[in-house]
Fold this protein.
Amino acid sequence: MTKGIIFKGIGGFYYVKADGVLYECKARGKFKNEQVVPMVGDYVSIDIYDEEKNLATIEEIHERKNALVRPTVANVDQAVVVFSIRDPLPNMMLLDKMVVLAEHADLEVLICFNKADLDLTFDFDVFQKKYENAGYRVVRTCAMTGEGVEQLLSELTKRISVFSGPSGVGKSSLLNAIEEKFSVETGAVSEKIKRGKHTTRHSELFELTNGGIIVDTPGFTSLSAAEIEEDQLKGYFPEFKHFSETCRFYNCLHLNEPGCEVKHAVELGTVDKERYEAYVYIYHEIEKERKKLKKW
Ligand SMILES: Nc1nc2c(ncn2[C@@H]2O[C@H](COP(=O)(O)OP(=O)(O)OP(=O)(O)O)[C@@H](O)[C@H]2O)c(=O)[nH]1
Ligand SMILES: [Mg+2]
Ligand SMILES: [Zn+2]
């Protein structure tokens, strides 16, 4: 048996890279019976039955370190949350939700603002400061000119990073800017509604020469955080931690409780107001969604 990683999955076939060779694989029937679906990023053992045509069967799926639902990928170390400064404009609520979901999956987070060329007046420094204060690394890139691509690349060494974000922000374009040989398909943004056209249809792994791996994924427009429990959410805003230790109630949710030091920090401006508002918004959204789920 040979060990490999699932690089992509299309129409019931899985493409597994093992010892530098890409094998087209079917999964053993037993997985279906066990209701296990192989995922891109899975470490698997394969049985090669045709050396010439590179055909094999997935015999075993090794234990996952983690598994993301959206985008669907296993065993990643870092989420690169990609937004563009224009076309489409960044949806900050979606950005905060993606960061929260990455925290929930215990991933490192890197925030990337792409299409720097489209708005030279964009106040990147404000965004950078906002998210750096929350404990995140932030980069500004332009896939078109290559600006910031070296810096982005330096954050992608020796680990598996998943590029996620709305359609049309330039995830695939960034891959091509990093290494031309990837020649990933990219698609124009709709003129009218300034939205991407969902060009990337499947998640796929790309190996960098620096030893890192990038997962390119399909863009999305909305995201549910209902897998998170309401009272867990506060733990996914790292900038709250320091203040929450001195809240009057040990289980303070930083909503309407008296003596809340997080709210106090928001008033003083030490915790960013918009980030706090995103917390409250996502909290209520989760509450609503989870209530609905319970009814079923
Ligand atoms: N001006 C400008 N355009 C860019 C930049 N990066 C990407 N684009 C353009 O934006 C459009 C969408 O890029 P894609 O790379 O396909 O976007 P994506 O995020 O992969 O989108 P999906 O695969 O649909 O999720 C293409 O027309 C790109 O040429 C950039 O830095 N500047
Ligand atoms: Mg794409
Ligand atoms: Zn509090």
